[in-house]
Amino acid sequence: MCDTGDQQTTAAVLVKEPVASIVETLKDIALYEGEDAVFECRLSRETTQDAQWFLGDVPLQSNEMNEIRAQGTRHTLILRKVTLEDCGPISFKVGQHTSAA
After folding, report:
1. Which Pfam families is this protein grouped with (predicted)?
2. Do 50 and 20 contact (CB within 8 A), yes or no?
């Protein structure tokens, strides 16, 4: 704001977060039933954008069977003690970008 006494003007500043892109994509893995499946994706920058993991079309959340971590630009999904029912596509989405394995 600028105030000269009898006149006043204001302006606003709007800062937008640059869009993060996926620079290290997911890799296919094969393992035995009962093992842990670890998937990693690396982004171009740290971001506050929503990032989401999917098994097929089902969004995943951290719980006793799935561990989801974000450390800096690295995003990790660990599927604990996989079973045959866990076979299928895994995908990671951030903004308009997707990686799948």
Report:
1. I-set
2. no
Q: Which two tokens stand for residue 1?
A: 């704001």
Domains in the chain, please, with CATH? 22-100 (2.60.40.10)
Q: What distance in Å separates the CA atoms of residue 97 and residue 43, rounded to the nearest whole number? A: 10
- CA distance linking residue 92 with residue 101, whole number of Å: 9
On whether the CB atoms of residues 25 and 58 are closer than 8 A, the answer is: no
Q: What angle do CA 57, 75, 28 make, to 5 degrees?
A: 60
pTM above 0.85, yes or no: no
Q: What is the pLDDT along the chain (101 residues), one digit of tens a residue?
A: 888 888 889 999 988 877 888 999 999 999 999 999 999 999 999 887 789 999 999 999 999 889 999 999 999 999 999 998 888 999 999 988 999 99
Query: Residues 44, 20: contact at Cβ < 8 Å?
Result: yes
